Fold these 2 entries.
Entry 1:
Amino acid sequence: MAWNLQSDRPIYAQLVEEIQRRIVTGVYPAGSRLPAVRELAVEASVNPNTMQRALAKLEEDGLLYTQRTSGRFVTEETERIMQAKEEMAADLIRRFIESMGTLGYTSEQAMELIKKQKEEEQCKI
Amino acid sequence: MQNLIECRDLVKTFPGCQALCGVNLQIPGGRIVGLLGPNGSGKSTFLKLCNGLLVPDSGELLICGHAPGVETKKVISYLPERSYLNDWMNVRQMIRFFEDFYPDFETARAYDMLARLSINPSQRMKTMSKGTREKVQLILVMSRRAQLYLLDEPIGGVDPAARDFILNTIIGNYNPEGSVLISTHLIADVEQVLDDVIFINNGRIVLCDSVDNIRAQQDKSVDMLFREVFRC
């Protein structure tokens, strides 16, 4: 899987987002063991120290935990993962409403547009 | 932890040109550092001083606490800017040569990397393309278990796919307590793998910071910042 990193934002923040996305979408399932830091760093073509920092942040957030000697694991608490998922969804919605705002739509109008587009797509099928 | 490179007021002058004027620098262990600057800014001179190929006019330079010499050559793996390999030798002979010379050379790793880049060990250096020769040189340098890797323009002559392989080789192979110092002007290609960057211009250090700090504070990539700082 590709790690699409943008060049104008801190790499560390982008790694945190990408790993979080993989956890909530089940690429790294709850309770599973994460690849080693260096392996992940090579896969993403980033510096191992930066990857280490991103993992430490996710550990602090409670999405990962370290078991001494056996490695780093995704949390088994599915509620914590759901919570992260909801936070990410809320963030996407907020950004969507913001962009629609710059086009001059209110959030109600934006919701109308979503409904309309969904209906049109269903008609096509 | 002791700094791998430590220098104070380092000065080196060539006839008619001041290559380094008062460089102060510390590089700790476990870092990948980019030494970035326009042509003629003093990058190669600095690396040559670290290797004892040049002697400073004044100032102090310590590698793992020692002045450059026999002891420091044991812990430094250096990729010079130009080829110094005997071009009548083939790759296998070069590997044997390095094996004899450096106790920390790991032959198996060298052959593994050659295979991954589909380089034939029986090929002579003389018959190789520029890019292939550079790949062989870098493989030889990265197959050592050194404390400090000094790489002078390691990706200049190779294609983008090989560039990715080389960068991954650097991240995957360097020793976690060791450090890597890469001089280059292909910044966009290397900035993802760097911890810190050092901007050098006219023999002086103009900026020294971590990549993520630069991106967070300037909202732009190191490559963009470099183009701004060194606009012609």
Entry 2:
Amino acid sequence: MKQRSSTFLYSVLSFGFAFLYLPIFVLMAYSFNDSRLATVWGGFSTRWYRALLENQQILDAALLSLNIAAVSATLATILGTLAGLALNRMGRYRGRTLFTGMIAAPLVMPEVITGLSLLLLFVSLQELIGWPSSRGANTITIAHITFSMAYVAVIVQSRLASMDRSLEEAAMDLGGRPFAVTMDITLPLILPAMASGWLLAFTLSLDDLVIASFTAGAGANTLPMVIYSKVRLGVTPEVNALATLIIAVVSMGVLLAGWNMLRQQRAAVEPRSGAT
Amino acid sequence: MNPGSNPGKRDRLWRSSVIGLPYAWLLLFFLAPFAIVFKISFADPIMAQPPFTPLIDWGAESGRRLLATLDNYRFLLEDKLYWLSYLKSIKIAAISTFLCLLLGFPMAYAIARMPQPWRNLLLLLVVLPFWTSFLLRVYAWIVMLGKQGLINQLLIQLGIIDAPLQMLYTDGAIYVGIVYTYVPFMILPLYATLEKLDLDLHEAAADLGARPSQVFRDITVPMAIPGIIAGCLLVFIPALGEFVIPALLGAMDSLMIGRTLYDEFFINQDWPLASAVAVVMLFILVVPIMLFQRLQQESQV
């Protein structure tokens, strides 16, 4: 009986992970394919990587996207951390239910709705007060801050919820002002959560196609917008190469972060178990 | 230290900025936009910049005149295209959610049953694709499913089929795309509930003579209900309005509502009608979104 159930577990996992990873590996393999017929194997080659590096349109778009992602992730982390504190350390206040709702809703809101509504806001504001005078990187950044701060808030909030409050309470009892206590005690403790929030916000911004398409106006073309216009017509070898680079960099980062986390967990567990 | 200000005042200032700053941002950039969408859905489209009429005509001779119109909603009701888009989106989102559950539940269960160092590694492997590009992962299926794609080539090489099958640009491809990109959202909440499941309960049930299938049905599944609900909502709500997957993997004429809205806005330039499409979509999603918020709030206590 035991044997049969563990065979079942292993086959479930093998099938599931094959489904999740096979398409990615196939895509990466084809990026080294010499043939222009993107799905027929024509020998090993790095020509699509060279073509990618010479494609000014893609490089410009990548630079713009990185720029927007860095700015929006930073501002989203600040606002999202404040929101996390407001959800978990500020007790009761008027409008708290609405606030919780506005934090949870962007997590599931279909992108077309968020994109359309933000664009209509920008157009209306322009009519009313003349700002924003044009749409481009600035409006995309505002849109990205809005949906990614909700993710940061949820991450920070759950860290705050699981955290021992005794340090903060002790500091308060000793006469620490709320601002100083937050800065000196709470912030250092939630720094890892803020860092993962920043990374998530950065990734979400870098990846967004729909909301950027609505809020971009005519001026700005982000990387996903350029990729979309290329792959809408079918397989594009340069995009295979780009995908391989992105996936390699991201996987390395995530695996390093995960490995680091595991090591810290182990380091945190061992001395305690040694002491008892 | 600023000598002039008293500490109580500064404490209040700190408190009101912690709450006020994100609150104001979300009111302006999240809530207000919905009010504007709602407003514009009652306007008439015109050839101008912006391409819709104001709702109130201030310049009319007999004072103000209300120009709001229900034409957009009437149009949505009368034109079969929109009805079919909504119904098709609900159908595709519901079936994909079910397929995600079908794949996600056994995977979450299997991960939760693994010994500890493996669990974290496997979870990392579940979320890893999420950190890479969503758009590129959808694109990967164009490479897999195309006429010259890997699957067709494999099937031909094996002699199972003679001519390539039309797999790309079908509803089947949309299902594969949604399940592929959204299944991590199903696995994570399921894992969170299954991990906490007490194995003693299983053993007790087994000792009392329950068959494994009974244990699964009467203990495992009921205890995983919160995870099942959370996972289903996390898949169903965004899948309903999905644009990228049907646009890249679906047939030209297979319109899901997210794509209809996008086309109405960008190709037909009919902003009021697009707004009405969005309002009706939100109306459909109100119940699942409220449910999701309830779950979020409960998890915050």
